[in-house]
Amino acid sequence: MHLDGIGALAERYDVFLLDQFGVLHDGQRPYPGAVEALSALKRAGNTVALISNSGKRAEPNERRLLRLGFEAGSWDHFVSSGEVAWSIFTDMARGGTLRAGTRCLLISRDGDRSAIEGLPLVLTDRGDDAELVLIAASEGDRYGLDHYRGLLGPAAARKVPCFCTNPDRIMLTAVGPRFGAGEIADLYERLGGNVTRIGKPYPAIYKAALALAGNPGRGDVICVGDSVEHDIAGGQAAGVATALVLSGILADSGGLAGIFQELGAWPDYTLDAFRWR
Question: How deeply is 21 buried, as exposed, middle or buried, from its count of CB atoms within 10 A (0-12, 13-18, 19+)?
Answer without folding.
Answer: buried
